[in-house]
Amino acid sequence: MIVLPARNEAPRIASVVEEVRHFLPGVPILVVENGSQDHTGEAALAAGALLLRSQPGYARALQVGFQHALREGAPWVIQMDADGQHPGAALPSLLHALESCDLAVGSRFLGAGGYRMPLPRRLAVQALGGWATFWSGSRLRDVTSGLRAWRREALAQVVEDFPQEIADANLLVRALRRGLVVTEVPVAMRVRAGGYSQHQLPRSALFAAKMAVLTVAEAYDGYGRTSTK
After folding, report:
1. Which of 118, 173, 177, 202 is least enclosed by beta carbons within 10 angstroms?
2. What is the pTM of this model?
């Protein structure tokens, strides 16, 4: 199943759904609309996607989508953004990677080319990657990538006590601390087709600070869990 968190993506959601359907025909596509002020939900339904709604927030939308996928018996789940950055052509390679890992992350930093991230943001993501690598004990590069494929069994380990604010680097650290095998796959991503990114200053600075703190909390089992590593 494909899970697409979407907020104020009405002009773009139909083309994203159509592209996914082209590369993975017959796979259920679930759009989780979270706090939109436009007609994102209606556009998703018109494009033939399934639709659920959640409270505002990317992480909350992911949790709603993941829980639905598990209830429906999906053997795997791919999460991707609804803004057009993630190419449908990359989805088969992520699924192929799941044959030898629990979680596959589409990475912009493994030589695939394409999307050029502004230098300040690139440095921030790389710093967060180094931070997550330190606390997880495993090399992580593109820790803010929203393009990820999960095996069902792996997803079931993290979904019930899912983070409610941020689910990026901290979630990767959680996965590794629970003994899951995480692999990064080269993906040539695109510039978003429009709309507003949550990674723009000054909001991105607060986002990065919160993520850094949550990453440490995961490493120290800050949510009251026992590490498996």
Report:
1. 202
2. 0.82
Q: What's the one-letter identity of residue 30? A: L
In a domain, 225, yes or no: no
Number of neighbours of residue 50 by Cβ within 10 angstroms: 18
Per residue in 2-15, pLDDT tens?
999 999 999 999 99
Q: In this structure, is residue 29 part of a structural domain?
A: yes
Within 114-181, strands assigned E span 148-151
Share of the chain residues as helix, strand and coil, in percent rounded to the nearest 5: 40, 15, 45
In a domain, 228, yes or no: no
Tell me whether residue 84 is exposed, middle or buried, using C-beta atoms within 10 angstroms of its C-beta: 0 to 12, 13 to 18, 19 or more.
Answer: buried
Structure tokens at 81: 């953004």
Q: Which of 5, 44, 13, 15 is nearest to 198 (CA)?
A: 5
**Residue 157, in any domain of the structure:** yes
Per-residue pLDDT of 121-180, as tens digits, reads: 667 777 777 766 776 778 788 888 899 999 999 999 988 888 877 778 888 888 888 889
CATH of the domain at 115: 3.90.550.10
Give me the domain span that covers residue 118: 2-219
Mapped to the 3 state alphabet, what secondary structure does 188-224 carry?
A: CCCCCCCCCCCCCCCHHHHHHHHHHHHHHHHHCCCCC
For residue 26, the 8-state DSSP code is T
